[in-house]
Amino acid sequence: VFFFFQAEDGIRVSVASRGLGDVYKRQVSTQSTWDSLSMESKGLGLTKEMITVDWVNSCVSIQNLKEAIDIIDKEPYKKKLKPVAESRMKLLTEPISAEQKKEAEESKAKGNDYVKAKDFKNAQKSYTESIKKNPLEPSVYSNRALTFLKEDRFQEALEDAKRSLTLNKLFPRGYQRAGEAYQGLGEYRNAIVYFTSFLILEPSNAQGKEFLAEARKELTDGVSITDHEADREARELIYGPSSLGMGKAPEPMEDVKGAPGKGGKKANPEHEKFFASYNRCKEEGKDFHKRGKYDEAMDKYKSCLKTLETLQKSNKIGVPSEEFLKREATTNNNIAVCYKQKQEASGVITYATKVINSPISDREIKLKAYILRAYAHEDIDKIKLAREDWVKVKEMQPGNIDASKALTRIEVAITKDNAQRVSDTLGEALKSLDDFKKRGNDLFKAKDYENAIKEFSKGIDIFKKTVDASKLKLLQGKDKLVTACQLFTNRSLCYYQLNNDQAAIEDSEYVISNLDPKNAKAFFRKGMSLVRMGQQAKAIEALQQAVKLEPATELYSNELANAKKKKQTTEPFFIPQPVKK
Length: 581
Description:
Blueprint: E1 5-7, E2 11-13, H1 35-42, H2 53-58, H3 62-74, H4 82-93, H5 98-116, H6 120-133, H7 138-150, H8 154-167, H9 172-184, H10 188-201, H11 206-218, H12 227-239, H13 269-274, H14 276-290, H15 294-313, H16 321-341, H17 345-356, H18 363-379, H19 383-396, H20 401-429, H21 433-445, H22 449-466, H23 469-472, H24 479-497, H25 501-515, H26 520-532, H27 536-549, H28 554-570
Antiparallel strand pairs: 1-2
Helix pairs in contact: 3-4, 5-6, 5-7, 6-7, 7-8, 7-9, 8-9, 9-10, 10-11, 10-12, 14-15, 15-16, 16-17, 16-18, 17-18, 18-19, 19-20, 21-22, 21-24, 22-24, 24-25, 24-26, 25-26, 26-27, 27-28
């Protein structure tokens, strides 16, 4: 459960700090809100009035840029924009170098630090620099959108949020930021749709549900949207219009009259008359469902089931049992749909399972039940059960796009879950590292460097045996990796105290090369040993890196200055000789 909305790379923003209510109650008319970016997310046509320098420089859609260049060619007064558009096209289409990506990540990291310090202006500058280096990273746009939200610049936040979605339709944070921006602009219906999209991609996000509830409370008179409508529109935002039915929000199923399955016999008038009471009850349930009254709809559908039981007992005209089974299964599916709208996964699973276990032969009805149950299992994080249901959907309908996307989504979730389990197992196996570090530190304080080395070495041996290259990724950012680095740098210091500079350098190099390439202490230890070995140039290089990583650490700056002085005093003094004529 998340207690904060989080920007990429760990920026956490408290809901309370955004001033919910006061800010979001502002009713701002935004008829032209999306103008120049609307075509990127909604597929609208581009007009010449939309094409400006700012639009070109912020466009992330190659298709739209091509269209813009065609328009520029036909409009003489816009010719000056062509070089700008072509330059932008080159930036979007040419491969981004590793160096550019690295610089973009560094600017993004600076922006994240500024956000944590609540310096939103400088954060915006850093994110903009990152975008210039790599305009194809959606998380940077969503992070910059966050800074605009903090300053109540909702229009700009909306534009950045939608740019992130243009780059990646499955990027949850983009929908979250767009929802917040729409809420700030007073467009609560749009906010509801985007928050619903966010929850489809992150169904267990508790605060996403809070935002959605808040947006629903703010809906003005005359503006409404049911859960059913929001779910349908949200799925279309993410996946596009689906011709397979369940890509959209589920709707009540219709009974196919006559024989089971499409293309069956024509309806038997006598049978239809026989089911008249059931049909009336079903229509009343559908009416409640359309109006968003799901409890009343469920009551009606359950009454339909009782009516079917009564009719089956009084069946004197020979209505086939399959017709009863089919209507029963359809009704159970409709009850499951109501539970889905109420976000009660257990109810969905109960009634969908009844359909799945039914002896009916109609594949379409069973297919819908599997899809309903699959989504419900995902909603309560029963990922493996969800995967089983989606696999069954693929077997029944190999071209089902929703199933394909769900299985991809689930595989990612399972991979992450497995990685977390391995990470937890590693954490358990490496518990003793802290003990070895503490004992080694105590011996170091007592100036017993040799025994301190033994204690640090015990911890290092356990680490090397437990963590191979494949598992090292799982420890990134974890406490145990920090402890492992400290074991190496502390042992390096012990070697330094014993004048074993080569061993000290090897430990430092191991940290830099294998564990943490930005470990300032490792660079410092390496530099100090190189100074004593008389390798001043290499020492200065290592110490400069330490200062760059931790500029506030005075010890590093002082030792760097000392190393530079030593280099000057040890360099041979060159006396120029007179030039012979």
